[in-house]
Design brief:
Chain lengths: 288, 423
């Protein structure tokens, strides 16, 4: 069996995915198809390791989170990856972490999909490596956006047509699947991700000057955010019950109050960081 | 309905050709079939069979288009190879190769359990179908396709459409080709086929797009440095490496003007698709460095790795120190195993063998591996070497490697402008 390539994907594109191809039969690989047509079995990510927690006695199963400029990757490492588990237990937090891993698909019921990663190798790196990864991932996200746009322009999109336009066979296969499976592909969302991530790599253009002027505005923004955090926390308390509140339901409830999905996710992760809520199982949120 | 019927009658008439059968007659018979409730397509076939008798319309290979049914051809079986495939857990042998007639040469794949003809036979193939495979029409032979051997005289000269191409194109060109290349190395050996001794010349040739191995089954008096035009040669592949094969049926002309020879430069995922190549250049990121990389000792007799000063064949020996790297290099779509020898390793980690030896003696192999990993993991490398494909993918034996420097702010600025420009 041929080795699968390691895709460069930002966390938001990965976590947005809800299409999977399940491998059947012996050793057939499974794939996650992202909205931009990445057909992922393996990925390569560099980000910030924000937490590692043990889910069982004797560290048989670890969960870790790695954040990139767009979101958070959830990693699970068990007894079959002793080197990875050992590294994760001994690494300082926070630190820059690179990992190569396989997609991990958990579908507790029809239509509910939780994506995480089973790392094969992890290693500590420095910030320059992370910056290089961000640049490379921006480039490859940009290429996927163009592939999706080109595919939608074709009268009868096919893998061969996309290959003829110069895209790799792997990407062409994924893009054809994506445009068939996703109703509306929100290309702008990912253009925003690229722009934000790229700005992050550039030296501050206007420097401190504009920063000073903005202090008041930032203060206002923070107060607004604090207010929203309270609202979200109330909603979670209201619906959590014994098992916790489902991520999707929280997002839905907040959207009804006029918040957009990105903001809600940002707030939830900020609440997670503050330790006001936690994630007992993937996709479920409980207050502490 | 009448219009439809006459369309079917037209098809029947053209299929029967000049058989002297009247149109009215056919129309009468056709309508009778329809009255009996026979689907028109079926009625058409029955009538063609009835009036056409044994006569089958022969199709020339140059006229075959993708996705045609019921193709009948007379051709020469130019090559025939087998491949094992896995169908629902069972191993099946399929046949593939090239077919040629006086108009063209096309690749074929046969899914029949047997293939009752050999290379060089003139055969009649009935009821084949066609598909498109990587931009070329391919003849497909199924269980219901008939294959019959004919006498040698039944086919005129095979018109092989010789395509001019560069070395980089031989991966995707079927049939006979014409190339202009420089002989980079050549050696002679004697082989015996069917009890006859024959001289074979083989080596490496190249043009400005890449290099390939070659085998000449005839003495064209080729010498290293010759620039030649070879017309009517074929490309064969061994583990993904192209081999240009030619013999006395090919035309070889020596050219006066020199040509430049270069390494074939391809994106890494493309190299994996091609499977292999001689002297290729590609780029990717180092995402993994395998445990068995670093400092090793080898047996001075046989070059095998030794453990604790002992060679598995020659016993206790004085080991020869060496360095090597085995890494996974990946471009985001595909990965290769890349193997570096001492020279390349020293260049990449910017340390000499004796530096490495000292680290191992002082701290152990893991210390050295840690240093190597810190130095090259996640780096983007430009690699040049020979690549081989097997069932696990592609392995690149590195001849030269260098780290590609990335100017992050300027590349980020460039991309940002492009992205914003599209808004």
């Amino acid at each position: 069996m041929k080795r699968e390539g390691a895709w460069r994907i930002f966390a938001n594109e990965y976590n947005d995915s809800n299409v999977v191809i399940r491998g059947t039969g012996e050793k057939k690989p499974s794939y996650v198809i992202t909205p931009l047509g990445a057909k992922i079995n393996r990925l390569f990510v560099v980000g910030v390791l924000t937490d590692v927690e043990s889910l069982s006695e004797e560290n048989e199963l670890l969960r870790a989170h790695v954040s990139d400029p767009t979101g958070i990757y959830t990693l699970y490492s068990g007894q079959f990856q002793p080197d990875v588990t050992a590294t994760l237990l001994n690494i300082e937090i926070p630190s820059f972490l690179a990992f190569v891993g396989k997609v991990r698909i958990f579908e507790p019921e029809e239509g509910v999909l939780y994506l995480s990663v089973r790392p094969e190798v992890v290693y500590e790196v420095d910030s320059s490596v992370r910056d290089r990864w961000i640049l490379e991932t921006c480039k490859s996200t940009w290429e996927r956006i163009n592939a999706v746009r080109d595919a939608m322009k074709l009268s009868s999109p096919s893998i061969n047509e996309l290959v003829k336009l110069g895209y790799s066979r792997q990407l062409s296969e994924g893009v054809i699947k994506a445009i068939k499976s996703y109703k509306n592909i929100d290309v702008n969302r990912y253009l925003n991700s690229i722009e934000e991530a790229l700005r992050y790599l550039l030296p501050e253009e206007e420097g401190l000057l504009s920063g000073e002027v903005d202090i008041e505005a930032q203060e206002e923004k923070r107060e607004e955010k604090d207010g929203m955090e309270e609202t979200v926390l109330e909603i979670i308390k209201e619906i959590e019950g014994d098992k916790g509140a489902q991520w999707d339901v929280i997002v839905e409830r907040c959207q009804q109050l006029g918040m957009d999905k990105d903001t809600v996710e940002e707030i939830i992760s900020s609440l997670l960081d503050k330790g006001l809520i936690y994630e007992p199982v993937l996709g479920m949120i409980k207050t502490t | 309905m009448n219009g439809e019927i006459s369309a079917y009658i037209d098809e029947i008439m053209s299929a029967l050709g000049d058989e002297g059968i009247s149109r009215e007659n056919i129309e009468k018979e056709f309508k009778r079939f329809i009255e009996y409730g026979v689907p028109p397509e079926q009625a058409k076939k029955s009538l063609i069979r009835k009036f056409g008798g044994k006569k089958i319309t022969r199709k020339f290979l140059k006229d075959v288009k993708p996705n045609e049914q019921s193709i009948n051809i007379i051709c020469k079986l130019i090559t025939k190879n087998t491949r094992e495939i896995n169908v629902k857990g069972e191993t099946k042998t399929i046949y593939y190769g090239m077919l040629g007639d006086e108009t063209a040469v096309l690749p074929f794949t046969s899914w029949r359990s047997d293939f009752p003809a050999e290379k060089g036979d003139i055969i009649e193939i009935r009821n084949a179908y066609s598909r498109e495979w990587q931009g070329t029409v391919q003849i497909n032979i199924g269980e219901r396709t008939g294959i019959k051997k004919l006498d040698e005289g039944d086919i005129p000269n095979i018109q092989q459409d010789v395509k001019k191409c560069k070395i980089k194109d031989v991966y995707s060109t079927f049939g006979p080709i014409e190339i202009e290349a420089k002989i980079l190395s050549i050696s002679e050996k004697e082989v015996e086929t069917d009890g006859i001794k024959k001289k074979v010349f083989s080596g490496v040739l190249g043009d400005d797009t890449g290099k390939a191995q070659f085998t000449a089954w005839h003495d064209f008096d080729l010498k290293e440095g010759d620039v030649v035009r070879i017309k009517g040669c074929y490309a064969k592949f061994w583990r993904g490496i192209p081999q240009i094969v030619f013999d006395e049926r090919s035309t070889v002309d020596k050219l006066k003007e020199d040509i430049s020879v270069g390494s074939l430069s391809v994106p890494l995922h493309k190299l994996v698709e091609m499977r292999g190549g001689i002297d290729v250049t590609t780029e990717g990121t180092v995402i993994e460095i395998k445990e068995n990389s670093g400092y090793v000792e080898r047996c001075p007799e046989c070059n095998r790795l030794i453990k604790n000063g002992e060679c598995s064949v020659h016993g206790k020996v004085r080991g020869v120190a060496d360095l090597r790297l085995k890494m996974i290099v990946d471009d985001g779509y595909a990965g290769v195993s890349a193997i570096a020898n001492r020279e390349v390793t020293e260049k990449l980690i910017d340390m000499s063998l004796s530096d490495c030896k000292k680290i191992v003696k002082d701290g152990g192999e893991d210390d050295l591996l840690d240093i190597i990993r810190k130095k090259i993991l996640t780096k983007r490398l430009r690699l040049r070497g020979n690549a081989f494909g097997d069932e696990f993918g592609t392995t690149l034996i590195i001849k030269d490697a260098s780290v590609v420097d990335v100017d992050i702010p300027s590349e980020a600025q460039q991309l940002l402008q492009m992205v914003e420009g599209e808004r």
